[in-house]
């Protein structure tokens, strides 16, 4: 009995060593990345942006300068409203608000500049100070596609109908007559395009995102996730074989073998 148990222990230890050697590098790697992620706020990993071209290609960003600015905008009282194509709304070359592209329309109403983005109607002072940002929760009609000011009314086209927006009460009233003269984009001046190009910043991958994707295996797609899962299973097996080795050795020692 003790001889059979001894052979079992030897076989178990061999597999324990093999499994341990096969996962040791990955276990150390996962431990280091786990520690880094655990202390990410204090290390500021989310604020460190990586913009290497090979990394951008790996994550699927297009290599056409990522179209940092649109070449069209809206000329309102000799001032240009345009969108970066990412999140920034510009008054001339100054970023004034964040909203989702595209910029659908712009107009002047009383002492305000209006900019209609995909997700919001942005209200600005002539100097570009943000006054208000109206989304669907605060009264902006769903599916807005165009904007104009006519007869001192803010008119918004939703595709199916035209509505008038009361800027004070945020009430929407349908407009019966067919409207023309919706604001249309025009090419930006070359000088302004050059200024926007110098300001445009291509997106990057944060250090935190990269470490998290490496830690989980997502950096290498589905195969990477499955590989990390396999490492996890092998670590569990390593723990079980270690526990079995301890139990068997203890049993053998008590039996006097």
Order of neighbouring strands in the sheet with most strands: 5-4-3-2-14
Order of helices and strands: HHEHEEEEEEEEEEEEEHEHH
Taking pLDDT < 50 over at least 5 consecutive residues as the criterion, the unreliable ranges are: 65-70
Approximate shape: elongated
Question: How much of the residues is beta strand, in percent?
Answer: 25-35%
Number of H/I helices: 6
The major β-sheet equals: 5 strands, antiparallel
Helix and strand composition category: alpha+beta
Rg:
31 Å
Please state the average pLDDT score: 84
The total domain count is 2
Helix proportion range:
25-40%
What does this structure look like?
The longest helix has 37 residues, at 2-38. The chain starts with a helix and ends with a helix. The protein contains 6 helices and 15 strands. It is elongated, with a radius of gyration of 31 Å. The relative contact order is 0.16. The chain is of the alpha+beta class and 257 residues long. The protein folds into 2 domains: 2-61 and 204-254; 72-199, no CATH class. α1 runs antiparallel to α5 (207-216). The strands form 4 sheets. A 5-stranded antiparallel beta sheet has the order 5-4-3-2-14, with no helix packed on it. Strands 6-7-8-9 form a 4-stranded antiparallel beta sheet, with no helix packed on it.
């Amino acid at each position: 009995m003790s001889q059979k148990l001894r052979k079992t222990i030897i076989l178990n230890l061999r597999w324990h060593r093999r499994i341990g050697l096969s996962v040791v590098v990955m276990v150390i790697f996962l431990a280091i990345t786990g520690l880094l992620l655990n202390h990410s706020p204090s290390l500021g990993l989310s604020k460190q942006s990586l913009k290497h071209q090979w990394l951008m290609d790996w994550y699927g960003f297009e290599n056409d300068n990522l179209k940092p600015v649109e070449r069209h905008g809206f000329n309102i009282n000799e001032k240009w409203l345009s969108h970066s194509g990412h999140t920034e709304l510009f008054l001339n070359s100054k970023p004034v608000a964040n909203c989702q592209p595209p910029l659908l329309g712009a107009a002047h109403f009383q002492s305000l500049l209006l900019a209609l983005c995909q997700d919001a109607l942005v209200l600005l002072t002539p100097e570009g100070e943000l006054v208000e940002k109206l989304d669907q929760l605060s009264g902006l009609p769903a599916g807005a596609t165009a904007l104009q000011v006519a007869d001192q009314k803010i008119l918004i086209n939703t595709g199916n109908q035209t509505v008038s927006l009361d800027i004070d009460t945020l009430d929407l009233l349908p407009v019966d007559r067919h409207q023309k003269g919706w604001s249309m984009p025009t090419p930006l001046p070359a000088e302004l395009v050059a200024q926007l190009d110098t300001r445009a910043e291509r997106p990057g991958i944060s250090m935190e995102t990269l470490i998290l994707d490496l830690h989980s295996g997502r950096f290498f797609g589905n195969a990477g996730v499955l590989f990390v899962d396999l490492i996890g299973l092998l670590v569990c097996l390593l723990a079980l074989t270690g526990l079995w080795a301890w139990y068997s050795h203890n049993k053998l020692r008590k039996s006097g073998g």
